[in-house]
Amino acid sequence: MATTASARPASSGRMAAVNEMTRLLRLLFEVEREFLRTVTTLVYRVGEPELKYLVCQHAWESAGHARFLRERGRELTTFGTQETARAEIKRLFDEAVGRNTDDPLVITAGFYEVLKPALLEAYRHYLKVTDHLADWPSKKLVEEFIADEERHLAEIKPWLQGVEAREWKLHLTQALDDLGGWLGQETRLPLAAGYVWAHQQTPFTHPATCNRGKYPVCSSVFGYDPTEDPIVRPWLTDPNTDARVIRLMVYVWLMMEMDAIDYLATVFYETPNAPFDLHFDLARHLWDESRHSQFGFRQLPKLGVDLMTVEHSLDLYNILIQMPPHERYALMTMEFEAGSFPTKAHVMDRVRELNDFEADTLLAFDRNDEQNHVRYGHRWLPEMMAQFGETRPTEEFVKATQEKFKEFAARFGGLTPHSLTKEKRLTGEKILKLAGVA
Ligand SMILES: [Fe+2]
Ligand SMILES: [Fe+2]
After folding, report:
1. Distance, CA 421 to ligand 2 centroid (Å)?
2. Which ligand is the nearest neighbour of the Cα of 257?
3. Residue 332 CA to ligand 2 centre (angstroms)
4. Of the ligands numbered here, which is closest to the C-alpha atom of 339?
5. Same structural domain for residues 276 and 165?
6. What gap in Å lies between CA 171 and CA 304, rounded to an integer?
7. Which residue among 7, 98, 131, 391 sits deepest, i.e. has the most Cβ atoms within 10 Å of its Cβ?
8. Nearest ligand, CA 256
9. What proportion of the chain, given as a percentage, has pLDDT over 90?
């Protein structure tokens, strides 16, 4: 041992114990950030809202792990200042995304039954090889992450029951074995010469529409005809509308933030060179929207609504997916979110008449979150524009994008027919009945 150490410069020998643990922290950071970048492609491909919500939650928690790993890593000298993951880690996550024709649950199994368990193993390895007193700060973090990872695997398990993914899992396992696990802690099993990287054959592209599983769909839930549409726009602001009607309509509105989940989730994969903090804030944004959608998804049945009668609106995803990511993000933050405050404020005042503490709470948190989302937009839109070589001033770019959206809405919007007849689906008229005012 003495001979090897003396062959290296004295300084690196002196700090060898720290440098080795920092190398592992760095790898763990890269795995978590790449997991976030790619697992988000599941969100719009899986159909069950509950599974979308769960993936959004895990994505957010993984972003948190990556952030803490980076903070701790930066306290140690050799962590490095750049944030890009090395090619062999990127490549494996690009592979895990699969193709857009694959069964999304098979792809989910690849993430959660191969890559995540390997991450859990990597954290356990870290804990085993580090000195618990010397490296106490990392130890405390890693202990928490292990508990999170175990919970993630348990939470996803019911969704993967009966999913036949053996072949795909073997394919990913081989690629992982080639690295010897995420930390290179196992014996490496080099890839067979004939191994084919699927993503190099067929690069992943987002599906043209998002998956809502068993639920009925339509183009839009906003309209003017109470016999056709559930959210009757003039009713939202009409002082004569009963507050109970407004409460039901706003829960439909919140539930439909599922479209924000689906189209925002597309942005991570397409911005592989974004600074990590951009993805961190997007992950928070995504998780917020998934909570907002859950507000509606959980409250509507309590107010007597059968969720199988609520059509899901697909227009926003279908239109925005035709536009590049920075335009999607510009419309989301600078148009849809920034523009929603006056109507929502009015809605909140009306709902307060009902003394429904839960509704008031949900709407207050929604408003608070939305204010943050607009802030994120101001911070990150210029950065995202730069990622795509957009050099116009932000304001000019946003204006032009708003115009482009109108054109694209005319071309790609309104094409999803109603799954249900107007007799069967939730409409303004039915909301009047459910609210007990008709
Ligand atoms: Fe929201
Ligand atoms: Fe939002």
Report:
1. 31
2. 1
3. 8
4. 2
5. no
6. 47
7. 98
8. 1
9. 94
| Domain that residue 77 falls in | 16-201
Whether 410 maps to a domain, the answer reads yes
In a domain, 1, yes or no: no
Distance from residue 219's CA to the centre of ligand 1 (Å) = 19
- Please report whether residue 211 resides in a domain: no
Using the mean position of ligand 2's atoms as its centre, give its distance from the Cα of residue 376 in Å. Answer: 10
CA of 287 to the centre of ligand 2 (A): 10
The 10s digit of each residue's pLDDT in 253-264 is 999 999 999 999
Residue 336: partners with Cβ closer than 8 Å, 6 or more residues away: 260, 316
User: Are both 69 and 131 inside the same structural domain?
Assistant: yes
Helix (H) or strand (E) holding 209: none
Q: Which residues contact 170 (CB under 8 A, 6 or more apart)?
A: none
Closest ligand to C-alpha of residue 344 is 1
Structural domain contains residue 150: yes
- Residue 163's SS3 state is coil
Q: Do 260 and 391 fall within a single domain?
A: yes
At which residue do the structure tokens 């943050």 appear?
372
If you average pLDDT over residues 94-104, what whole number do you get?
A: 95
Residues with CB under 5 A from ligand 1 (ion): 257, 289, 292
Distance CA 276, CA 270 (A): 14
- Structure letter (DSSP) for residue 333: I
The mean per-residue pLDDT over the stretch 220-239 comes to 97
